């Protein structure tokens, strides 16, 4: 059986750590370098060409990234996270955790002149880049709608794309705490290099959610995982 590449797709965070000591962003320093020409256009349009940078994992500080708690992972898990997590954002399209990032809060749903809505502007370029980068991979797609609009998954020939929903005890989709809940899940995935959704059967989410096997779809190339409270 072929060893599959693991990839985890996450949304950016509106919460950020300001400042930084890294050099301003420049082509050739980020993952998926074939996007660099487009990135340079957005960086210039956002007026961030001279801004200092931090690594993505240090830049975004929202609840998802706090729950992932990257610094407390062991070195194997940190290396796995750097190699597998891609953060969708309006400035660079997608970024790996180790990529340099100026301080910004641009989401794919935001508009920026002259590009217009960034999700629409990025979509063909991200889809083409990800079609190559994620070919044959196992993808955990944890993107909300705003970020999902920035690519076309059907045109990316992955091995498997797993989506996840969190439901409360009454069966309603959890929205307010969604990013917090995803952070703990991502931590579990990278610690265990989880390639199969059935690997969540014994997962004990710190907020009390568990895999609901009665409504989850665990087989096929597009599994749908339901984690339910209680």
UniProtKB/TrEMBL annotation:
One of its GO terms (cellular component) is cytosol. It comes from the Bacteria. InterPro entries: YaaA. Transmembrane segments: none annotated. GO terms for biological process: response to hydroperoxide. This is Peroxide stress protein YaaA. The lineage of its organism: Bacteria, Bacillati, Actinomycetota, Acidimicrobiia, Acidimicrobiales.
